[in-house]
Amino acid sequence: MMKFFRKRQKEMLAIFMAGLLIIWLGGNAVTSMMDPGQQKVVLATTAHGKVTTGDTNTARAYTEILESFADWRFPAGRISREPLNIMDWVVVTREAHRLGTRPASAAIRAELTDGGSAAFLNDLAQRREVKTEHVIDAIADLTGVQTAAVIAGRAAIPSEAAFRAAAHDALETVRINAVLLPSKAFQDLEEPVSEAEMMELFEEHRASQSGMGLDFGYMIPPSVRVEYVKVDVQAIENGLRVSDEVLDQEARELWEEDKERREFKKPEKPEPIDEATPDEPPSESTESDESDGENADAADDPDAAADDPDATTDDPEDDTQEEDDAQEPAEPEYFQTWEEARDAARAIVRKQRAERTADRIVEWLSGQMRENWYGATQRDDGYRDAPSVMTAATYMKELITRIPERYNYPEAVSVVTTDFFSQREAREVADIGSAFGEGFRPIRDLAFLVQGLAVIPTDGQVDRTRYLSLYQPSTYVLKDASGGRYLWRVVETRGQKEPDTLDEVRKYVEADARTLRGFRAAQAAAADLLERARQENLKAAFDASEELKDRVIEGVAFRRPEPFARQLRFNVTLGRYARTNITIEQVATVSAEVVDRIFALEEVRPPVESFDLENQSLVIVVEWVETIPARQDEFEELRSQATASLDFLSRQVMGEWLDPQNLRARNGVEIP
After folding, report:
1. How far apart are CA 423 and CA 441, in angstroms?
2. Cα(345)–Cα(340) distance, rounded to whole angstroms?
3. Is-above-0.85 flag for pTM?
4. DSSP-derived secondary structure for 56-105
């Protein structure tokens, strides 16, 4: 034996080295082949059992078969956001099996054989070097998943009965007359509100949050204090440091590049003023005096005019010719020479230069502030602790003194710290309150996404840059109507709290007391109008009320809106059958309950009723005129629109059902 090994030493060494190389390159695969226990390694747990290495190996083999004729990663087409992976395939095939949508292997074999696909089945098995049973099992898995997805999609399509009911609500309409009685029209702003009246209202709603209309609430809302740098573009323009030569050169280049820019339009000339007034006839001239003679007779006598060669005649062709001869060429709409356009072009260039300088000032300031935040400690809530340098009371004022000389305009840059303000008070804040950022976002929408008031969402779709730590400069630079720039940050917050005294919210309580008074007066006016309308009709009752007609300028109105339905057609075409609020044109937005009561007036005699819309501080009196039934052609048109929309909805639901994230969440997939 030893003699054999010595004789074959080189060959044996080569085999040993090759084995080491295979193990080094193949690693886990070789280990798995040598150790069957590796097939039982748990990769994940699901609601339908554990997923082991053996499960994923089998799934990998089956999906390799499917790749010959189908994309198993998108089993229903590319309608889901992300492709499935092997783990997802194990889970979704188990789910299909549990739902009973996976067909029996015998059924698949019979279908392929009867359909003339037996040759395909055998050929695929030979090419993949697997048994035909493996191909059949792979096809059964795919069919089960596709069927389950289709069932999920069809579940989103409502029944025929539900569609007909929704279509009826969308197509049957009602015509009404309505009188609007808003609370504000009945408020007496001169009559004082007593302390007792305000105290009663305050005590009743002091622990509630304010809502719409009569939904009063006096909880003091969250408030913020903002510090900002204002860069005044007009002040920069007034002190712009640029020579006349440079200004003229840039202005002329601008004009020559775009001579039809709106600023280069010539100012419109004022219309000529006619001296004569309608009440004053034109003065009689000497010629008119003479025309009282024989020429006047000729004018009155057509035959005489024809005989008199000196008499004037009205020849349309002659008049047209005279107008053409007198017509002057149209004056150019835009400046034609540099001299005409010079002042306008210079003004544009000055404005552009000032705006660029303002932007550079803001960029420099913002960059300086951001540098201090690099490396700031992030807290568990996602916000960062402000560096000590940023919390200094004089930080911003000292910062603006270091603006580089090339765009330093001290008279144009100022630092302001506001008082505390809430969202509903934000628009009243001087300067920055009326400014807007990107997407027309005002300070009221931005300043309250801040540490201490807002929780940073974990959803990946949310723009987290909008959420500010205290003292952190916002990336949303605001601009006002004159072009002024505002670089701002929140320096202090106050949370919501219940007011301790009436004085803290007195102005709101007083306003609400007047609103409530006005609403009750509107209710009384509605009751009186309703009584009159039941005796004749709503229009006659409204016309007979001098009190209501005197309040028309304050919002009281008689309306004949277009017919409206119980349901929106758009919702029906999209398969959204839940009833929603309906907007009655020129009247109000009302709830589905109010709409039903309006339709029910058809059965009431006389068909008139009043409705209190407390969320709008409004009372309306409604008179039913007619109900217009749905037409068959409208129904067919709606069905056609809905069919296309519901097919899209079905595919959308299928895509959501197959989406990997939804699949894992639905089946409780947890990977250790």
Report:
1. 13
2. 10
3. no
4. HHHHHHHHHHHTTT--TTSBTBTTSSS---HHHHHHHHHHHHHHT-SPPH
CB atoms within 10 A of CB 218: 24
Checking if the pLDDT of 319 tops 70, the result is no
The 10 Å Cβ neighbour count of residue 425 is 14
Centroid of chain to Cα 384: 30
Q: What is the pLDDT of residues 428-444, one digit of tens each?
A: 999 999 999 887 889 99
Summary count for the chain: helices (H), strands (E): 26, 13
According to DSSP, the residues that pair with 229 across neighbouring strands are 415, 487
| pLDDT band, very low/low/confident/very high, at 495 (cuts 50, 70, 90) | very high
* 8-state DSSP, 646: H
Bridge partners (DSSP) listed for residue 670? 45
Tell me the CB-side half-sphere exposure of residue 87, using CA atoms within 13 A.
19
Phi, psi for residue 625 in degrees, rounded to 5: -110, -55
Q: What is the CA radius of gyration of the chain?
A: 41
Give the Cα separation of 111 and 117 in Å (integer): 8
What tens digit of pLDDT does each residue of 119-132 get? 777 888 778 778 88
DSSP string over 252-311: HHHHHH-TT-GGGBPPPPPPPPP---TTSPPPP-HHHHHTTSHHHHHHH-HHHHHH-TTS
Query: Is the Cβ–Cβ distance between 224 and 490 less than 8 Å?
Result: yes
Task: Indicate if the pLDDT at residue 278 is higher than 60.
Answer: no
